[in-house]
Design a protein that fits this description.
2 copies of one chain form a homodimer.
Chain A: H1 9-14, H2 21-28, H3 32-38, H4 47-60, H5 66-73, E1 78-83, H6 90-104, E2 108-113, H7 120-127, E3 134-138, H8 143-152, E4 156-159, E5 169-173, H9 175-188, E6 194-197, H10 204-219, E7 227-228, H11 234-246, E8 254-257, H12 260-274, E9 283-285, E10 302-304, H13 307-323, E11 331-334, E12 337-339
Parallel strand pairs in A: 1-2, 1-3, 3-4, 4-5, 5-11, 6-7, 6-8, 8-9
Antiparallel strand pairs in A: 10-12
Helix pairs in contact in A: 2-3, 2-4, 6-13, 9-10, 11-12
Chain B binds a DNA duplex through helix 3 and helix 5.
DNA sequence: TTGAAAGCGATACCAT
DNA sequence: ATGGTATCGCTTTCAA
């Protein structure tokens, strides 16, 4: 035994099994509880103890097992994020912001993407077993789903969704106000003949934008605006314009689109297939303010959603609900920010 | 007590605490182990027992606690996905595919987004405590990081990254082959004066694309191609073209861009600031095959990465490594698919 | 301040 | 096929 420099240290490090608090305790010659305490923020540990334990932990590459901790504390430090259309250009930004804010708050993100909005049922079955501390949902849930959250005492915050039949916390962009800003600016600029290219009928946000547009137009005395379209895709914008033009009656003055990508598709159809260039011959507006909206070929007039504020609100609301389950439900509505580009004649 | 219809059933359901296997056992009048077995796929349970337990579970809304299960089985059924640039248009698609495939395979995804590639250190500290079964990393990790994976016996698969100094599994798109296809087609179409707009110098993929381009050009006897640019943004494409034109010497015949978004920025700069329209006056090619590449205003000639195959490969490799840790490391390289659009004069 | 011991909610092995 | 019991790795009383 003489001359050995490192006892079983190396063995511990290279052994397959992850290092536990017992290993650290043994190595440091203290109790296992002491190790645990050293890794708990506000615990009462002597300086000396802490130093010894931390040194041992460092040496062995110890990291507390979050799974075991969750079991006893009944806090997983996990939240689930449900997103329906990651391919919608708007969501990657939201997701990036959400995960970053959660990380900063010491919470991990379990991601669930739904390909169809109807998948919620199955996805929730996958969520429950992990005892997540809360859920941020940017996907359509039914009142029954929301009731299950209540029953299970799992805090829920909707992002750009909500249900008016039940009480639930949510963060939204004010679609109605945004649409109003767009239409008013177009109207002021002299447009009278409008058309609407709507999003998917099963998207609350999409329906809200469409409805708000029709309402505002009616208030302005315009009642004959055609409504086309059925999803959030470029193709929807493109094809809807072709339909619109094929219907005869000449081009509209202005087209209200379900979102930016639809607007981009519409602009391309007008230019490529019908020789109409914005803002000279036609005005097109979008919604969301995604990256490509500012690309020179499109330069959209649109409503930019304040994503950073909205994600911040969603995360902080959820964390508050986790800390204080009796927190009253709250609906936070953010106004979008008008961006005027050259896709429309517009008067602010 | 006479006349009561439902004993403590309702209490169990509405009580705050999640339902455990003990609750179910009591309710069904069987042992707790029996309940556990009923939820384990291949266990030996009588039909009668299963029916009774399942009924009780259903009634109480029982879902096995995945956290507790993980603790004893040493399998979290969690994998971590590390992504550096969610705002890079290419990644949302990758992420959506990855999570969907993982869900299908019964594995949950813990998402970590890195804002700077250098953040890997801190992020890994957040990953280890959750005892994830494996990691898919589309972010730059150092050999030291990879060594830590080895030490901890955590399977790792790189997605569009790799390190040639260490042995690690990875799924990549063949950048070199893709670039070659692009350049050869451009060369064949008569282009001789090339320029390169590169991506970020700390992106392996970006550097590889640039290097491959320079090499191929050299093989074709072209040695004076200027290299500009420094990231994957639209602005990079836009500004680099302006720089290129400001340098004098007239426009190049063809521009090789780090990715599609850069190519789009370049096309816009040529058209808007210099009156050069593709493919008549200029040829521009991109890489990735993201959605906007097919928009009519750009219609890029580009290399489409076979995302579905690549994500499928990544997930199945990781799952295989989880099942069989001694699995040899493997590098799977997929050829990109040429898409010819009208952003370049091109000869196949 | 420290250590011993009791859970957290499941799985797994062992008898029966 | 079923029930009893040890165990996973931690946190949390409770004494000392």
């Amino acid at each position: 035994m003489a001359g050995r420099t490192r006892p079983d240290k190396v063995v511990s490090i290279t052994s397959g099994r992850p290092v536990t608090s017992y290993d650290v305790a043994r190595h440091a010659g203290v109790s296992q509880s002491a190790v645990s305490r050293c890794f708990k923020p506000g615990a009462s540990v002597s300086k000396k103890m802490r130093a010894r334990v931390m040194a041992a932990a460092e040496e062995l590459g110890y990291q507390p097992n979050a799974i075991a901790r969750s079991l006893i504390t009944r806090r997983s430090n996990l939240i689930a994020v449900l997103i329906s259309n990651l391919t919608n250009l708007y969501y990657p930004e939201v997701l990036a912001e959400l995960t970053q804010r959660c990380s900063a708050a010491g919470v991990r993100v379990l991601l669930f993407t739904l390909s169809r909005e109807a998948e919620a049922d199955e996805v929730l079955q996958l969520v429950w077993p992990y005892r997540v501390d809360g859920v941020i949902a940017s996907a359509q849930l039914s009142p029954a789903h929301v009731a299950e959250f209540e029953k299970r005492n799992v805090p829920l915050v909707f992002y750009n969704r909500y249900l008016n039949s039940v009480s639930v916390s949510s963060v939204c962009c004010d679609q109605e106000d945004g649409v109003r800003q767009l239409i008013d600016g177009l109207y002021k600029a002299g447009h009278r003949k409008f058309a609407i290219i709507a999003g998917p009928p099963d998207s609350v946000v999409g329906v809200e934008r469409k409805t708000a547009a029709l309402e505002r137009l009616e208030e302005l005395g315009i009642e004959d605006a055609p409504v086309l379209g059925e999803d959030y895709s470029y193709e929807n914008g493109f094809n809807s314009v072709n339909e619109l033009m094929a219907a005869g009656g000449g081009p509209p003055d202005a087209v209200i689109c379900a979102n930016d990508v639809v607007a981009i598709g519409a602009l391309d159809a007008f230019r490529v297939n019908h020789g109409l260039v914005a803002p000279r011959d036609i005005s097109v507006v979008g919604f969301d303010g995604v990256g490509p909206a500012t690309w020179k070929s499109y330069d959209l007039t649109t409503i930019r959603q304040p994503v950073r504020r909205m994600t911040e609100a969603a995360v902080s609301m959820l964390l508050a609900m986790i800390e204080e389950p009796e927190m009253p439900r709250e609906r936070r509505v953010f106004s979008g920010i008008l961006r005027t580009g050259s896709s429309a004649k517009f008067a602010e």
